[in-house]
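Lecture notes, part 5. Sequence design as translation. It can be helpful to think of inverse folding as translation between two languages: the language of shapes and the language of residues. The source text, in structure tokens, appears below.
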């Protein structure tokens, strides 16, 4: 016997209602499953054995370790969405901790975090080493005031004691920085070649004391109130070669105490070195 369907059963209201109820049941069980899973995960995330409760700091030499610990614990306090503890060893805000410590303590050049089990967080820090000073003025190095330490990258990271003016080389700007702490004195691409150039000058018998950076030129302070000036953006290797050739010229070498008597060495004219003696 052949059975032919007219499709009336598939389109009947009873059939559609039955499908709706089946979909609602599946949706209910799916939602119940998700809710149960989330509830279990939230419950587990709040268990004491999974929460960071101790913070240790390694590598801090001048920064107070207790201050660092307090900062980390403050960040780990509270909850995500009022439910999940921020101190959970899997979910703790690693990037936020590192960023906050680098901002709060400019002396740190690097911060790393390591978990020791699930209860202790070890904070490994690297402190910047003082390379020179940034001061409000460089024209009187022996009386430098309002000074800060900067590192080899030219980053200003901490206040310096007043006695440091005679120990470290001094960098200054013609227009002082309003808030120097936590800032770069110059972009690294400009500062590093500049500092290397200044260090090389000692090979020529020149003893740099301080540098003032203007909008268009550099003014290097030397002993006995002498100055070496050149334009910003100049080829430093070429300047060094020109200055070396000038100081090694017999006409200059034959002059007794030339560098002690000179008041200005001017390198602002290309391939030329002009000088002036003290009056």
């Amino acid at each position: 016997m052949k059975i032919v369907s007219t499709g009336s059963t598939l389109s009947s209201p009873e059939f559609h209602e039955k499908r709706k109820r089946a979909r609602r049941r599946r949706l209910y069980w799916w939602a119940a499953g998700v809710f149960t899973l989330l509830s279990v995960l939230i419950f587990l995330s709040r268990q004491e054995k999974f929460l960071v409760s101790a913070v240790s700091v390694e590598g801090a030499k001048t920064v107070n370790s207790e201050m660092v610990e307090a900062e980390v614990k403050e960040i780990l306090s509270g909850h995500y969405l009022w439910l999940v503890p921020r101190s959970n060893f899997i979910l703790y805000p690693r990037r936020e901790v590192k960023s906050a410590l680098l901002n709060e303590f400019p002396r740190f050049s690097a911060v790393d975090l390591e978990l020791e089990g699930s209860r202790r967080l070890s904070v490994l820090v690297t402190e910047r080493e003082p390379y020179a000073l940034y001061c409000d003025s460089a024209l009187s190095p022996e009386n430098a005031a309002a000074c800060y330490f900067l590192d080899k990258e030219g980053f200003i990271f901490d206040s310096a004691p007043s006695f440091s003016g005679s120990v470290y080389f001094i960098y200054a700007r013609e227009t002082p920085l309003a808030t120097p702490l936590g800032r770069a004195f110059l972009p690294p691409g400009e500062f590093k070649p500049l500092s290397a150039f200044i260090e090389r000058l000692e090979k020529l018998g020149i003893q740099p004391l301080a540098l003032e950076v203007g909008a268009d030129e550099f003014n290097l302070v030397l002993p006995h109130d002498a100055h070496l000036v050149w334009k910003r953006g100049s080829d430093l290797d070429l300047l060094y070669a020109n200055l070396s050739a000038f100081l090694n010229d017999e006409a200059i070498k034959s002059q007794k105490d030339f560098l002690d008597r000179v008041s200005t060495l001017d390198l602002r004219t290309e391939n030329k070195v002009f000088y002036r003696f003290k009056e």
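The translated text above is only one of many valid answers, since several sequences can fold into similar shapes. The chain has a mean pLDDT of 88.
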